[in-house]
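Re: Re: token formats

Sure, here are both.
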Amino acid sequence: MDTNPRQTTATNTDATKKANNKTTTTTATATTTATRNEQSPNDWIRLSQWVHCLCVVTFDLNLGQALEYVYPSEMMPSEQEVSNICYMAFPDSNSGCMGDTKFHMRLRAIGNGNGNNKSPAISTYNALCAPAMRSDDSHYWGFVYFRQKRDPNLPRGYFQKSLIIITRLPFFNLYYNMLAQLAPKYFEHGDQVLRRACNQINTQWPNLMVGETLQLPLLEYNYQICIPKATSSSRKMHSIQMQAALAEITPESAPTCLLETPTAVKVLTSVHEVELFHSLGFVMEHLYTLWELVITAEPIVVVGTSPADCSHMVQALVAVIAPLEYCAEARPYFTIHDSEFKEFTQEIGLNRSIPAVILGVTNPFFVKLLKDWPHMLRLVDNQKNMQQQQQELLQLHKLNSGNAGNGGNSGNTVKLPQPMANNSNILNGSLTMAAGDGSSTAGLHSKYRPYLKKDKTLIKKVLLGMKTKRPEHVQTALIRKYLLELTQSFMIPLERYMASLMPLQKDISPFKSAPNASSFKLDDFLATLETAGPQLTSPLKGDWKGLYRRFVKSPNFRGWYESRHRELQLTLQDLQLQALSEANLEHWAHDKQEVEIIDMILKLKQKLNLYSDKQQLQLSTHEGIEGQIRAQIECMKGLLPSDLKNVVNL
């Protein structure tokens, strides 16, 4: 009987892990030294915007997972990062993943400072793009292509190796397409494919830009993408000038090599949006509950047998609250060897609460370890079971319709016949505790009581699509539209209230410090819901106020509020700058002492310097205002004697 070769690596001890860390890094360093061309990270400026490095992890009989190759070698991850990459590069489950498997992970940057994430191009890109697509300087994304196949010539009878794209960008569609193109060629032709790809990206790809169609040639493909701009009305930019400035930033010494000319064009309609129906189809009955859990940043553990399923589900959950940014932690694929294992899983005590995180796991050990977690989502094992699950969902819909006709649909719970009782966990709306009986059943296990009553319109449409074999991407578009409208309905009252915190125009004086925006007061906000609440735009009924009270305690609210409050303050600074540019300072200065005039000149200079340092956050009228402020400075200087003019010119 065949055994899964992953079982041994999934049970490595901590002692073995620590002993192997240095050996792993040393092995990778020795392997990649041969590829050095006396280059520095600065020679990879363009590449580092898109890809940090490419890694190859293999299974060594003596070491376990070991880093075999890194390119560019100048972008070698730190020792701890190498350890995390190695342990998450292989599936950590007992089910076995024969053939090719693609999944992704997210790991904390513990670094050596290599890369170009603080470059002007990245800063400008982050200021212009939507929050969900920012380049993250605190974390890496790893996109993994794992191959396992029988090979009688190897000591254990199996070939096991992974190619990983390490990047700071959450462009799931782009990088999965790149993996599908690069990995098979790498397994056939070796390291030269990776070197050629990196050199092509570094020499032929443009800088990161939003709102433009970008051509990304990679070997025989030419990917066409467009990264959307941020939609916040308070962040209107000089996009044309910004893009022109970006286009002027080029690598100083890009490596030269013979590159393949693309022969096919592949248009990616979105670089980051994942297929929602593929993951959420079997839990449609609980979609609105999941939306509440994610928007309030509740801790959720996603349990599956495949890292591909887990990582896709975690990303789908994060996406259900778009365009609101998910500001808690999310780990699409998490193992017992992760350096953050204790941080996320240590015992809950009086001074220790469950962290706000969504974890995707495949090791059954986590089911017992995380028994105190309030929400567990068990995934369907394979496509055959998924189809069976969807058929049972359709049966439930028929029963539901029958009960409704008999007047029995007064609540959210539907009683099912005995033969289907073993699947009631995901079908009848009565959720069970994760650690309780039936926790191995696919579906959502939780004692959470939703604040809102679900709208069955969406559920019926999706179920009808299952019955009529509607394409998955159409189902996804339908789900995404409903969830987008729900999130917008939830956030519009908050946005409106935040706008009311802005001081009146008459309170902004050119001769006083810029006023601060008023602070957020929950009771005042809740009082506005009677006349301007989400019920005006959403068909959902329920305890909206209770949901808002829970939301304001979450990291998602803090992230949103800090961003909006910062924008308000910047807007106030801009308005004061405009007031200064339009003020009659010459008339103001006629009865002022020379020291007061000098103070005004220094104040004007300080304002100009402040906004020069934050160009990416300027309003579109800033260029004209800047000229007016310089004219005001010259006017003030003209009122000073010549000796003092020299002082203010220093």
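Second one below.
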Amino acid sequence: MSGAALAVVVVVVFLLTFYLLQRYGDLRRQQRMVLFGTLLSWYLCFLIVFILPLDVSTTIYKQCILDNEPHPTPVTPARHINQTETGSSLHPTVSVLKSCEEPWSYIPDGILPVFWRVVYWTSQFLTWLLLPFMQSYARSGAFSTAGKNKTALIENAIYYGTYLLIFATLLIYVAAHPNQLTWTKLQTIGITAANTWGLFLLVLLLGYGLVEIPRSYWLSSCPGYLLTKTYFKAAKMATEKAAAEENLADVMEEVAAVHESVRYNHHLRKCVDTILTKCPTDYQEKMGRDVESSHGDQNVLPTERSLVSLHKRVISAVQRHNQTHVQWSILVDEAFHLEDVAKSLSSSAHHFIHSFSSAQQHSWIRRFIYTPTVEWYWECVFRRCFYRLLAVLLCLLSAAVVWSECTFFSTHPVLSLFAIFIQMAEKQYNYICIEMACFVSILFLCVCVYSTVFRIRFFNYYYLVPHHQTDAYSLQFSAMLFCRLTPPLCLNFLGLIHMDSAISHQDRIQTSYTSIMGSMHLLSFISDGFYIYYPMLILLLCLATFYNLGSRCLNLVGFHQYITDDDLTSDFVDEGKELIKRERRKRQKTEDAENRRWAWRERCGGQGATGRTRAGYTKLENNQNSPVTEIKRSGRD
């Protein structure tokens, strides 16, 4: 293929990364620098995951070529005498071995080392130097580029100062011991330190994901459980939504006071106008009317520093307000859908009924493929079986990962399940199986780790919210985590399949990725100690996650979590159920009013309006009743 597989993977991974960024980020409103940094970081990390199986198959092929090279058979003195006496040739015999078949995804020599070097060092530059600066830059409330740069440098002074101190210490050590520590060894020490930090966090996230992902799919097969948990989320989200609205109102009061006190001929007016552009439209209009009706009362003039602080709080308050409203709307739609599923389960008509016509997507897929009958069979019959089967398969994969993490250091005998499978495929030179096994294994590890990164929430500072609602700080923080977690995850995977000599202690060709990492034997207490025994902690973390110890601890300190046998959870569920009932009544009234209005327009529009349709409403013909009558009849049925 001569690198064609590498090119295809590069394009596919870019499209996947762009889709994720479009789902979580706002491509139209967020700063281009933030979007580019996040896209590049995610892209490089995902690229490592997808290219590594090709590196493994290419390395196995090179090992096959090395093993099958014609090696002269050594001739001992005794055998030399015997060969002379029998008149045989004095030349050594040559062993004839089978030839190696080149894999379909073979990448020519010289490409992967350069590729890994560019990808790895670019991601490390992003995560340790550029992204922390960009985080502070994006959160800054300064009104100029120079002001934002100054704020970012000040906030990261300690961060960068620590790096300079470590670097200066190493330089002094190199100058004092020029023969003991070379630049290559210094580079390896830096890589090992970064991977050690990443492995420490990796095991924590992996221990949670290995249990939570199979369990979430198993529980998702039960609509009753999902509905109860949705009620719980609705109660919590209603509280967060009210707090966000109150916070936004308080901040807008301060903006209104500043807007009234700073007149248009003041030198700080440009700063005030910049703040006003970040406010919601209804608040801007209200402030404009209030200023026109004011009697020119002069308030205390703000300083530029106070305006910078206010600007920062306005951005945060508006972002949080938009997040809660979008999440609330999505949560209400999800609750309505789950309630419809519960009603359809008890229906013998085998026909899925939506509570609101606006919930039905009037597309050709729903009209011809995903019909109400097909939807009923999926939601009420097949979905449960599919999710439970998937949960069982994921549970088996999790068990294999936990066993292999606890036994991968054993090479005689080989106990790691992933190493056993790869070695069996290697004996047959089945490169397709090798690549598929590597891809599925490392993809599962990445899903367990990355999904945890997408789920975790640090108050309101870090929270990845879909539907374009994630703020710039959270996007860049996730990019930093990905860049720090992916290299140790790949090294851990190579250790599981015994292709990292620092772990397996085998004399064989190393992958190009491992060669970039350098020899870990330079720090034996890490390669022979921490890298081997620390991953065993996954077993304890899996047990803690299985018994919800983390959720119970958070619940005790006031961060309410969904725990089925907790009284406070029951109170939240009851509160959420009442909130959803209230939203259902409001939506029903709104839809009935819109249907009556649309029916009246259709009747009074004459022949020119006949045949018009509207998304979310019933089409009226001459022989049909009004949509309201149809809804009532379907409700009785």
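Residues 188 and 574 are 57 Å apart (CA to CA). The longest helix spans residues 304-345.
- S.
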